[in-house]
Design a protein that fits this description.
This protein is mostly beta strands. The chain is built from three helices and eight strands; from the N terminus they run βαααβββββββ. Helix content is 12%, strand content 33%.
């Protein structure tokens, strides 16, 4: 597998009774920074939805094949506001994705456009299909038949 999403709540969800969890942990992670990942030719493209996040508020690191995206969406509310309804999340959000050994984490390209962070991660050279040349076998040994030299071995 090329990409493995790190989910700190996976074991927590498994250990709790199903009616209690009802998917809240996983929903909390994916709703703050939804992600898609697609492999195209010799790269993987990962997109994150980050509406309302400025470029300066996005931090992207790769360490030991773990891609970490941290984004901060500031709250638009000021002191004294009486919030009638609040469904959007604000604050700092982090998402970690484990990159497989077949991806080159040192060559990640990132672009933020209209609230969508797009990452392109190339497949490493060692993971691309390699053409192997097959030899026909050991080279043939050429032999020539020669007539014995009559002067050789004669005493003069």
């Amino acid at each position: 597998m090329l990409i493995h999403q790190w989910d700190p709540f996976r074991q927590f969800e498994r250990d709790l009774p199903r009616p209690f969890t009802s998917g809240f942990a996983r929903d909390a992670i994916s709703s703050t920074m939804p992600m898609d990942a697609v492999r195209r030719d010799h790269e993987v493209e990962i997109t994150f939805d980050l509406p309302g996040v400025a470029l300066a508020d996005v931090d992207l690191t790769v360490e030991r094949n773990v891609l970490t995206v941290t984004a901060t969406r500031p709250s638009p509310y000021v002191e004294g506001d009486h919030v009638v309804s609040k469904e959007r999340r604000f604050g700092t959000f982090t998402r970690r994705v484990v990159l497989g050994d077949s991806l080159d984490g040192s060559a990640v390209e990132a672009n933020l456009d209209a609230g969508v962070l797009t990452l392109r991660i190339p497949v490493s050279e060692r993971s691309k299909p390699q053409k192997v040349t097959v030899a026909a076998g050991p080279p043939a040994i050429e032999a020539a038949v020669s007539e014995p030299d009559p002067t050789e071995g004669a005493d003069n």
